[in-house]
Amino acid sequence: MNAFEYILAKQIEWAKNQDIDLIGSKGGRGRKVYTSALEENLFQPLNPFTREELVAGDGSELNGGDKRPAKIQALHSSSALAINLFDYWRNFPDISIIVSACKLARPSSIFGTIQFEQKFPIDKRFKFAPNLDVVLSPENHKSIKAYAIESKFTEPYSSRGHGGIDKKYLDNSAIWDNLSAIKLLAQKICPDDMEFTYLHAGQLIKHILGLSRKFGHGNYRLLYLWYDTVGAAGGKHQREIEQFSKIALSDGVKFHSITYQQLIINIAKYREQHGKYVKYLTQRYL
Questions:
Q1: Cis bond leading into 45, ω under 30°?
Q2: Is pLDDT at 82 greater than 90 in this prediction?
Q3: Separation of alpha carbons 12 and 193, rounded Å
Q4: Whose CA is closest to 140, among 116, 113, 103?
Q5: Exposed, middle or buried, 141 (CB in 10 Å: 0-12/13-18/19+)?
Q6: Which of 90, 108, 91 is nearest to 100 (CA)?
Q7: How far apart are CA 39 and CA 99, in angstroms?
Q8: In this predicted model, what pLDDT tens digit does every residue of 122-175 receive, in sequence order?
Q9: What are the pLDDT digits (tens) for 8-48?
Q10: Most buried residue, 34, 111, 161, 268, by CB count within 10 Å?
Q11: What is the pLDDT of residue 263?
Q12: Domain map of the chain by residue range?
């Protein structure tokens, strides 16, 4: 069983254990890996602000109808996974537990906001800006303006693959200030990425360019939050992350990575205060 099928099988069994009836990508047709109602795929109802942000994003996550479920209703939706982890914390002004669980800061009081599908334009000449899955904005940090998170579930292991980076980014020299090593990598994966099998390096590079323009070099932390799996795929994915991390860190970019499994284990330490939330995450994703 390959990595994608392994993760999907675990999610299907979780749904069966919850007595959730699954439907196909076209309702009565297609593989039955979608919940018939959005709420069945989420720990709690969507925060109204989260819903607005998803609607404004470019992923069309909530677009569905009578004959076709929304993408976020897929058991293997990375958007649903990120929401199940982070939307809960929009109810708390102190976001220190989730920030420290991500290993982005030491445990201490961190007051701030959480947002989804945030866009950080790289250059006004580019029509689209990359969407970051989650952004934690601390209000009381002297230098870090944002903890930005790119979330991956099954995407790295799917058969679709990923592209490199378009030449138009390399033709714009102004956007590469302080990013010489990352620019060299961008040149290697332009226009096709033959360097990485599982890591979408081009996407991460675009996030770095957008974040640098918005907050300034070194004033943000970028977290690659990924779902690990058994076998060779998970190991190679991790090695590719380490390869990218060395390049980013050499340019002074505060790049981090952690698996969803490790994040959930870190959160589970707070079971006494957040029992239902911890129980849901550990039963579904560990």
A1: no
A2: yes
A3: 32
A4: 113
A5: middle
A6: 108
A7: 26
A8: 988 787 888 999 999 999 777 899 999 999 999 999 988 899 999 999 999 999
A9: 999 999 999 999 999 998 877 789 999 999 999 999 999 99
A10: 34
A11: 98
A12: 80-285
The residue with tokens 């196909």 is 24
- The β-bridge partners of 210 are none
